[in-house]
Amino acid sequence: MTAVTDRQKLQYITARAADARVNVELETEGMTLNIGPQHPATHGTLRIVARLDGEQVIAAEPVAGYMHRGYEKIAEVRTYAQVTTLVNRIDWLGSFANEVPFILAAERLMEVEAPPRAMWIRTILFEMSRIANLILFLGDMGVQLGAITPVFFAFRDREYVLDQIERVTGGRFHPNFDRIGGVKDDLPKGWLEDTKAVMEKVRSFCDEIEDLLMGSEVFQQRTRGIGIIPPDVALQYGLSGANARASGIDWDLRRDNCIGLAYPEVDWKVWTHPDGDSFARFWVRLQEVREASRIIDQLADGVPSGPIMAKVPRIIKVPAGEAWISTENPLGEMGYYVVSQGDLTPFRLKIRSASFNNISITPWLLRGVYVPDIVTILASLYFILGDIDR
Amino acid sequence: MGLGLVESGKMPAPLTKLLNLSRKYSLWVYQWGLACCAIEMGAAFGSPRYDVMRLGVIPLPASPRQADLVVISGTVTDKMAPAIRRLWEQMPDPKYVISMGSCANCGGPYWDSYSVTKGIDQIIPVDVYVPGCPPRPEALLEGVVLLQERIQNEDMAARWTGEPIVVE
Question: What does pTM read for this prediction?
Answer without folding.
Answer: 0.83
